[in-house]
Design brief:
This protein is mainly alpha-helical and 238 residues long. The protein has one domain (2-49, 80-218). The protein has helices at residues 2-9, 22-32, 34-48, 85-100, 104-107, 111-119, 130-151, 153-164, 180-198, 202-212, 233-237; strands spanning 19-21, 53-65, 71-78, 127-129. A hairpin with a 5-residue loop joins strand 2 and strand 3. Helix 4 (85-100) packs antiparallel against helix 7.
């Protein structure tokens, strides 16, 4: 069962270069899209829906007023503390999914690849080279690592400081710039939404640009996969 589903993901697991089913890739992107959406809702909750809570039983009149002639009170004010273990686990899962799609062997362990291949079984396959997809997933993996650092800055800072033997990063506040988390989540949502809805792979376009300017060397896959049997005889004889 596992092997047959992988064969729905790849055109031929023994061929070089490898080709993947674009239909299944888009289904997979739609499935994984739920995770950055959840992370975005988490950040929205943190920023906009977690007000300070005032314990009215502790209100004390200071008999002072501010510049607007409002009475100043002191009180016990609390704020909700967030714990990101669930979010961290989901980011680790996304990282695993992105890395597992890099090779034929590791693809067998990816639940999203197996499921998307199964869902795509009754749809005409659209075969695309794997190399640009690998590049796109590498970008996604880098964003996932950045998200891990954003949601766990104290843990990373503690590890780094321990290895260095001195304080390189503060462990009492997030060392990443303000707004980093929101930006990263928007990038993930945008890229995956474009892949799912329009079949537009941003990472693939970047890969194509780097090939065009010569920073990445890639053989002509189309030239190596010409079907001579389907070409007119006159063209073949020429």
């Amino acid at each position: 069962m596992n092997k047959s589903l992988i064969n729905l993901w790849y055109q031929d697991i023994n061929a070089r270069p490898l080709y993947v089913n674009e239909t299944a890739v888009r289904i997979r992107a739609g499935m994984l899209l739920l995770i950055p959406l959840f992370l975005g809702l988490t950040l929205y909750d943190v920023v906009y829906t977690s007000p300070y809570i005032v314990d009215t039983n502790t209100l004390v009149d200071t008999y002072e007023t501010n510049k607007d002639q409002h009475i100043i009170y002191t009180a016990e004010v609390t704020h909700r503390v967030y714990e990101y273990s669930v979010q961290t686990a989901l980011i680790f899962y996304v990282l695993f999914e992105l890395l597992s799609g890099m090779t034929v062997f590791t693809s067998r362990f990816s639940p999203s690849i197996l499921l998307s291949s199964y869902f795509a079984r009754n749809h005409p396959p659209v075969w695309k080279p794997l190399a640009p997809k690998r590049f796109a997933w590498t970008i996604g993996a880098s964003v996932a690592v950045a998200c891990l650092l954003f949601f766990n800055p104290d843990t990373f800072a503690g590890w780094l400081n321990h290895l260095a033997g001195r304080e390189l990063l503060t462990e009492t506040e997030n060392f990443m710039p303000k707004g980093t988390g929101t930006t990263l989540v928007w990038v993930c949502l945008s890229f995956m939404w474009l892949e799912t809805v329009f079949g537009f792979c941003v990472g693939c376009k970047v890969h194509a640009l780097l090939v065009k300017i010569g920073l990445i060397k890639e053989e002509c896959a189309a030239c190596n996969n010409i079907n001579w049997d389907k070409m007119p005889k006159s063209k073949v004889n020429e």
